Amino acid sequence: MGTAEVTRHAPSRREFLQRSGQAGLSAVALSLGGGALLSRPGAAQSRGVREIHLEARELEWELAPGKAIKAMAYNGRIPGPELRVTEGERVRIVLKNGLAEPTTIHWHGVDVPNAMDGVPGVTQKPVPPGETFVYEFEARPAGTRWYHTHFAEHRQLDLGLYAPFIIEPARAEPFAFDREHTLVFDDWATGTGRPLSSTREGTAGGRGGLGGMMGGGMGRTMEGMMGRGGMGGMRRGDRTPDYDTLTINGKAYPATAPITVHEGERVRLRLINASADHTHVIRLAGHRLQVTHTDGNALTQPVDVEAVPLAPSERYDVRFVADRPGAWFLSCAEPGHPGAGEQVLVVYEGHEGRKPDAPVEGVSGVDLWQYGLGRGRDVLPRTSGQERTFDLVLSGGMMGSDAWTINGKQYPRTDPLRVRKGDRVRVRLENHSMEAHPMHLHGQSFKVLAVNGARHAQPLVKDSVDVDAHMGSVVLEFTAHNPGDWFFHCHKPMHMEGGMITLAKIA
Ligand code: C2O
Ligand code: CU
Fold it and tell me: From CA 10, how far away is CA 264, in angstroms rounded?
């Protein structure tokens, strides 16, 4: 699969919708096959600015039949409308806050100007109930991005304020596909089911045994098998919700919307983990998956695996060839997850009504994606300034505490990374805690130079990186090209709440 491949979008849904005149609908999310959504804010396209209207509101949401909960959503659905724009396109998003509390939106993985970044108290004032805020920026870089609330994420993100934000490349797609679907995974605490064990060890890989996902994935699955009391009965912080239900595009199996494929097609899946606390290991029975993008950024070549672990906030684009007609489950291999709702039928056209085998749980012997397998493209802006290095020790959560620290300090007392525009910034992360931390940098993507001591020759480009528990380490590097104050934090909202946040201050 060379990089010269050119996409043959079987008339893209976008073109199709444009032709079929749906563009008259203003900022309405149209439901498409497989639960994917597309926003057609056509009416408001003036002077080359695409205007999109979003309203955050409380609602009652049915996760599965008989399982309705009080939730929060953009435009009345979970996930909110999938926004699809073209790289470089100017977008204006008018957010109306219909909640009873303040809110903001963060454009995760998008290089927005600092004032559009959606971090309350840092880049903007929170939007009060009943008021609106206008976000405007050029959509870049291309790839599977997402948007979500950045106000009280431990509540608002948890309750459904998130959605895909797809930036299609201005030039040809690097890897051809015939059909695509976006799948967003989420964990819910409904109080109606058996609490799931938490994912604590991390997925970065490369440790060759305990801790990482290597060697048959011991470390993490052990946690799964031993249940929540796993690590010698250590308790988690008291405030961590008891997650008991898992959804794909807002629904728990059997309410998940089946995905239809046609024999012979190359199907692209955009996988997004919007969960607060859980890593998901996504597989499709009967098929191998080719990883093509990490957090939206294309690899040099697809990597063939059986299953792909996604830490909270990570995205992977994968592709499979529909060459085994029938009906199959796409599901999470984490023990207990399919039963909690994380499975969806993938049905070949003409094979409707077929009942597939139950999903296989556990990752023992499964050929898993890990960071060391991918080769990234060198797409980050050139550096022009100094080389700066920062060492950050992640710790906390001891004895069930809810305090999480960076170099022993909790935000806002953490020390910011002060750099200048153009600097090459290297951050060495070391995890001294018992849980993995998916660390996310706002405003610019980074290269993953090394993981658990192993250097990567052609580093992946990402904006979230899972730092394994128990002395896991990551070295990342970014070009400080986007001036402003940028959050750099663990994407588990309870860990953010507990203080695991710092700022990259780019002057
Ligand atoms: Cu996806 Cu600071 O967030
Ligand atoms: Cu964390």
Answer: 13
How remote is the C-alpha of 336 from its chain's centroid? 21
The Cα 393–Cα 372 span in angstroms is 22
For the stretch 35-84, pLDDT in tens is 333 444 433 555 689 999 999 999 999 999 999 999 999 999 999 999 99
User: How far is 19 from 228, CA to CA, in rounded Å?
Assistant: 52
How much distance in Å is there from the Cα of 273 to the middle of ligand 1?
Answer: 12
Q: Find the 146 Cα to ligand 1 centroid distance in Å.
A: 9
CA distance 368 to 304: 9
Backbone φ and ψ of 7, nearest 5°: -70, 140
Rounded to the nearest whole angstrom, what is the distance from the C-alpha of residue 497 to the centroid of ligand 1? 13
For 50-96, the three-class secondary structure string (H helix, E strand, C coil) is EEEEEEEEEEEEEEECCEEEEEEEECCECCCCCEEEECCCEEEEEEE
Map tokens 């991390």 to a residue: 202
Which helix (H) or strand (E) element contains residue 494?
A: helix 493-497
Q: Is the pLDDT of residue 226 over 80?
A: no
pTM (2 d.p.): 0.88
Interval 261-270 mean pLDDT: 98
List residues near ligand 1 (CB under 6 A). Answer: 106, 108, 148, 150, 313, 440, 442, 487, 489, 491
- Which ligand is closest in space to the CA of residue 109? 1
pLDDT tens, 168-219? Answer: 999 999 999 999 999 999 999 998 888 898 766 787 776 543 334 433 333 3
- Residue whose CA lies nearest to ligand 1 atom number 1: 108
Closest of 158, 330, 139, 149 to residue 244, by C-alpha = 158
How far is 20 from 367, CA to CA, in rounded Å? 43
| Distance from chain centroid for Cα 343 | 18
DSSP symbols for 291-360: EEEETTEEEEEEEEESEEEE-TT-EEEEEEE--S-SEEEEEE-STTTTTTT-EEEEEETT-TT--PPPPP
Residue closest to 427 by CA, chosen among 454, 394, 403, 396: 394
Q: Could you tell me the distance, in angstroms and rounded to a whole number, from the CA of residue 495 to the centre of ligand 2?
A: 5
* Tokens 């979500």, residue located: 148
Q: What is the mean predicted confidence (pLDDT) over 487-497?
A: 97
Helix (H, G, I), strand (E, B) or coil at 195: coil
**Atom number, ligand 1, closest to the C-alpha of residue 109:** 1
Ligand 1 atom 3, closest CA: 108
Residues 6+ apart with CB under 8 A from 311: 199, 202, 203, 273, 279, 436, 438, 464, 466, 491
